[in-house]
């Protein structure tokens, strides 16, 4: 600590055919070397183009670079074999001790030279501490070829810094440009205001004009001309087809919503610092497991409303359906990573631990939640359901279920789309994502947008005397997940340069998991919004 080093020789390697090929592949695929010092990741400072004297940090340094010799057309691979480390420290004003607050590196490619035969005491001519000759550029780079020798060297310099130890992560987490986030939020708020206006109009029109008219018992023809939603009062709370599946999906969505909400609150309060690597993932997994309680409760409450009797079957489905799908995809992806002998694979022991968490804590909690739910009195419908289902009139083309469901997904996706770009960039392009404040605002906007678009489309649907709203309300806002997946595909082809099939499969596999989770989350928000809305309007009218 605080003892600078210059031109320390690490080792000398002569490349054989296999090693040279491996190095070339890693350089072609732009692999980076990551290191950690005192829990700080190694970064390469890169001068920003647009910011005045701003610096952008790149995680880790590239194994090497590709280039051509002057006058040659052939592209060669050069290895970064000299590293100049800068360790920044903050001195304790009351003692002689110091704490590390920064860890940076500048990589160089240098063809090292020396006189005579190589031995332990050889001095380099290209980099010599006694002659004060340091490496400052990559003018004569080290080429990667079979039988070439490569000498690896490094310098360490220590710099005193004003940054206190408690704030050392701030430089890593500096937002390059937060204007675009504000632009995204204002853009999303416009959508929300537009939708809120529509919902307010519908509420005013419905709850004041329609209801007062119905309750004054005007002639049936006038009321019928006015709106069609009252006409379906005898069918609007009829249980839908596949009601069991709907209960399971709603329960899962509640579990997911609880997990995301609590994670975001923790992150906002600063509990999930990036210095605790894997903290975010651990928190999310544990919260998912404990939110099983709410999943069981909400799915059984809904099941009881549909006059269901086999509550244990629904509970089992809630506990296993969504997690088993996700786990299967994850297992296949992990097997692919194992097959590539990558260190990024989740160890087998961790997989077993995940299964134990799921079976040992999550499943019992889902059952406890269901048991509490089944003890509660059944939710009462505001109007009685008739015995014979009413015939649904022919619908206009724009009220076609497929069309209205696909239209419904556009707005929630539009609300999160810019933030999504940043999240994808941070996941796939090795950058820090730590703007949970923005993310929380976007999440609130997402909830409001999902709720409002579903209410608007549900109202139009009931007005055209189509009472099959249960599944439609879930799928309307849930369809935003389809756009999310399509955007992920667009991002893959435009922003990422992935050529290996396994990497492509991994990307789409993980994005499929994300999209499926998003579907469950947004679908449930839309469903509950519509559920409250229909109960509200039908409880306000007198039904003879």
UniProtKB/TrEMBL annotation:
InterPro entries: EMP70
Keyword entries, A-Z: Endosome, Golgi apparatus, Membrane, Signal, Transmembrane, Transmembrane helix
Source species: Gossypium davidsonii
UniProt KW Protease keyword: no
Main location class: membrane
Protein name listed in UniProt: Transmembrane 9 superfamily member
Transmembrane segments: 182-204, 246-272, 278-297, 318-339, 345-368, 405-429, 435-462, 474-493, 505-531
Subcellular location(s) of the protein: Endosome membrane; Golgi apparatus membrane
GO biological process, one term: protein localization to membrane
């Amino acid at each position: 600590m605080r003892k600078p080093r210059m031109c320390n020789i690490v080792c000398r390697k002569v490349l054989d055919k296999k090693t040279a090929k491996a190095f070339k592949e890693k350089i072609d695929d732009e692999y980076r070397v990551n290191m950690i010092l005192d829990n700080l990741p190694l970064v390469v400072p890169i001068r920003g183009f647009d910011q005045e004297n701003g610096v952008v940090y790149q995680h880790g340094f590239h194994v090497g670079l590709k280039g051509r010799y002057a006058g040659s057309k052939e592209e060669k691979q050069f290895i970064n074999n000299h590293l100049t480390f800068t360790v920044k420290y903050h001195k304790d004003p009351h003692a002689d001790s110091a704490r590390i607050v920064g860890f940076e590196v500048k990589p160089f490619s240098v063809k090292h030279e020396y006189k005579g035969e190589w031995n332990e005491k050889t001095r380099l001519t290209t980099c010599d501490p006694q002659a004060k000759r340091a490496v400052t550029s990559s003018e004569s780079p080290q080429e990667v070829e079979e039988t070439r020798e490569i000498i690896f060297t490094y310098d360490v310099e220590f710099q005193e810094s004003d940054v206190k130890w408690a704030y050392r992560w701030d430089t890593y987490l500096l937002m390059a440009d937060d204007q675009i986030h504000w632009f995204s939020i204002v853009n999303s708020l416009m959508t929300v205001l537009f939708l809120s206006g529509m919902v307010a109009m519908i509420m005013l029109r419905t709850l004041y004009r329609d209801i007062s008219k119905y309750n004054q018992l005007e002639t049936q023809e006038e009321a019928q001309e006015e709106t069609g939603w009252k006409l379906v009062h005898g069918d609007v709370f009829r249980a839908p087809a596949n009601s069991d599946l709907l209960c399971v999906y709603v329960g899962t969505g509640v579990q997911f919503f609880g997990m995301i909400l609590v994670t975001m609150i923790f992150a906002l309060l600063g509990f999930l610092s990036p210095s605790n690597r894997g903290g975010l993932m651990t928190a999310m997994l544990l919260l998912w497991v404990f939110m099983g309680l709410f999943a069981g409760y909400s799915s059984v409450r809904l099941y009881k409303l549909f006059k269901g009797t086999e509550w244990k079957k629904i509970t089992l489905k809630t506990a296993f359906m969504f997690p088993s799908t996700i786990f299967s995809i994850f297992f296949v992806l992990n097997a692919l990573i194992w097959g590539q002998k990558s260190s990024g694979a989740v160890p087998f022991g961790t997989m077993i631990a995940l299964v134990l968490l799921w079976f040992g804590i999550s499943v019992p909690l889902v059952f406890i939640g269901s048991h509490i739910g089944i003890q509660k009195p059944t939710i009462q419908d505001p109007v009685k359901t008739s015995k014979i289902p009413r015939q649904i009139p022919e619908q206009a083309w724009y009220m076609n279920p497929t069309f209205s469901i696909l239209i419904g997904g556009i707005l929630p996706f539009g609300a999160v789309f810019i933030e999504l770009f940043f999240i994808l960039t941070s996941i796939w392009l090795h950058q820090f994502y730590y703007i949970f404040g923005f993310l929380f605002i976007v999440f609130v906007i997402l909830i409001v947008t999902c709720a409002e678009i579903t209410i608007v489309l549900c109202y139009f649907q009931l007005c055209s005397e189509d009472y099959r709203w249960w599944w439609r309300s879930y799928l309307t806002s849930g369809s935003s997940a389809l756009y999310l997946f399509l955007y992920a595909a667009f991002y893959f082809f435009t922003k990422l340069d992935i050529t290996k099939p396994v990497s492509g499969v991994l990307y789409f596999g993980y994005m499929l998991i994300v999209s499926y989770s998003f579907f469950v989350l947004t679908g449930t928000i839309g469903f509950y919004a519509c559920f409250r809305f229909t109960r509200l309007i039908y409880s306000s009218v007198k039904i003879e």
